[in-house]
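INFO batch 0412 | record 1 of 1 | parsing
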Amino acid sequence: MLKNIIRRYVTVNNIVKMQRRLDVQQPEVRDLLQQNVLDICKVFERNNYEIRLIGGCVRDMLVKKQCKDIDLSTTATPDQMIAIFKKNSIRYIETGLQHGTLTVHFNGSDYEITTLRIDVETYGRAAKVEFTNDWRLDAERRDLTVNAMSLDVEGNLYDYFDGEKDLQLGKVRFVGNPNSRIREDYLRILRYFRFYGKISPSAENHENETLTVIEELAPGLRHISVERVWMEVSKIMVGNLAPHLLQLMYRLNVASNIGLPDCQESYFQEFEKVWSRSRGSAIQPVCLISTLVDNENQASELCLKWKVSNFERSLCCFIVSNRNVKGTDEQPLKAYQDIIVRKNGNQIVEMVKQLLLYQGKIEESRVIETWNIPKFPVNGADLKKMGVKPGPDFGKLMNSLKELWIESDFTLTKELLKEEFKRLQK
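INFO prediction complete | emitting tokens
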């Protein structure tokens, strides 16, 4: 009897510690508990299943950031969810049924809903799971304390591991033992750096124990797919505190285990310079990565290693080849406009825009984006009429005329170019 009373007392106090009621009239809470979400949750509650908002959307709401995606968790199993959706004519997709995840399409929006689960066995990023109805056990399997919070439709915040306190302090802590969490999924090392950039105000907020574990387990990153590595690294590069985090990744041997090249101090300085002057712009992560390589071959090799998109690889090589291009005081954009006209490709304007962002020329990048590209007035048919026969000299002559047109600041007309052609033939 006494044991039951003590157990009940401990349980009640644990609930009080982990839960607080938010004001649902606060704009950020109201935005999260939007009508679609409330309607979905009512369907579950009518069928006697618990359901809460979970993870990133709750974290972002607490720091007054607008969240991109709203994810939910429930005590209903996947089969029970399917039965509910069919009964209520709700469209759904079996996006991750083996892990208990379905995506609901509701009033034009998508919401992922996942059954509470525990990891029975882990295999890197894969895991064998069992479903549960214990919210704390589900929270224990999550990576970071700030991602382990949940919120019900009444505005009750459930925080089993002091995630809200860590948010307020700008602390990034793993749930439970850092060694165990990382061994379950080595990608969590990179997620540590990404979330540190998201929530920490300074470079002084690391816990030494966590950094020691990261350094010890960094070789495990070699088992992670390069696509996943690039997905995390690309977010770290453009995030807050990126120069500090990049150097820390090198110091802890994380960089060498994800394929980043050896770096000299001058590379870090260049990275920080580009990162600082491009803040607030839409600079692409590969532009920042390009600061860590010397030439096009190295840029291409790194991009191929990480399997970035063809455009990203081309952009990285383009930046490396053209980062020293400069305009003049009289014509600050002429050199960049010349590149656009010479290359004449669908993506060249975006590449030149990114080059300007790399150089910190934010306003100029906006101008170049809307520049009305002049059209070279001479084409192949014109050359044939002038008596030039197809062959090796045909392209050379066309390029020569085009260079004259470019040097004239795009002012030479077709007639003037014909006169230049006659002069070239003499």
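INFO post-check: The first helix runs from residue 2 to 18.
INFO record closed
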